[in-house]
Specification:
There is one protein chain. The protein has 220 residues and is of the alpha+beta class. It has seven helices and seven strands. The chain has helices spanning 6-22, 31-38, 58-68, 132-148, 152-174, 189-205, 210-215, and strands at residues 26-30, 46-52, 72-76, 85-91, 99-106, 122-124, 127-129. The chain has a five-stranded mixed β-sheet with strand order 1-2-5-4-3. α2 (31-38) crosses α4 (132-148). InterPro entries: NT_sf.
Length: 220
């Protein structure tokens, strides 16, 4: 099965965002798709979307997408103890090759995702994105989780994370981003503190990034 193209990824993201907009649910992209739209070179392979709501859980939000567009569909998790389903979007396929795109829907504070004030959400290509600094902090958290995982497939993901984080750091510097900015006071303090510990771990592995971390407001 071939991976989705960047155009297909953005198309699927737009379809999901439109459904939530129509229902007056605020949302934004994070993960690799948001990184890509900010300028990271790697083509994402799925869509990560956080919806800011207290009315619905992630499973109900997935059902909304399936109800709104028949190309979204759910399959049971491979984990027999899991209570969630996996959301996919059908892509153009041939008889020999079925293609699809994975869509992850999350609700804060899952994975320590913060509630982003509406005025802080960034719009690129008419898609709402997690702001750069919290996006970077969550990418760093993902790198830390992957390197500490007992699963080999998860551990392999840390090297892709490093590429994304390194590029995102440079983009943040170019845009004058700094974790100490007053307008980032809505980011939970615990997430910032944990990020500082992870920065030290990252610099220990990749010392050439120390200056860049300091330029966005971390001790390195």
């Amino acid at each position: 099965m071939s991976s989705p193209t960047s155009e297909e990824i953005l198309y699927v993201a737009d379809k999901a965002v439109d459904t939530f907009r129509d229902r007056r649910l605020r949302c934004c992209l994070f993960g690799s798709t948001a990184c890509y739209l900010f300028g990271v070179s790697r083509t994402p392979n799925d869509v990560d979307l956080v919806v800011f709501t207290n009315r619905y859980d992630a499973e109900e939000l997935k059902e909304m997408l399936v109800e709104d567009d028949s190309d979204f569909y759910l399959v049971p998790s491979r984990n027999p103890t899991a209570s969630y389903s996996v959301l996919w979007y059908r892509l153009p396929s041939s008889r020999r090759r079925r293609r699809k795109c994975k869509v992850d829907i999350l609700v804060p504070p899952t994975l320590n995702i913060p509630h982003v004030p509406g005025r802080r959400i960034k719009i690129i290509s008419d898609l709402p994105l997690m702001p750069l600094i919290p996006l970077l902090l969550l990418k760093l958290q993902g790198w830390s989780d992957h390197r500490e995982s007992h699963r080999e497939d998860m551990q392999e993901k840390q090297y892709v994370d490093v590429q994304d984080i390194s590029e995102l750091l440079e983009i943040a510097i170019d845009r004058g981003q700094d974790v100490r900015q007053d307008n980032l006071g809505w980011i939970p303090e615990q997430l910032r503190q944990d990020a500082q510990d992870r920065v030290w771990d990252f610099v220990e592995e990749y010392p050439d990034t120390a200056e860049n971390w300091m330029m966005v407001g971390f001790n390195a």
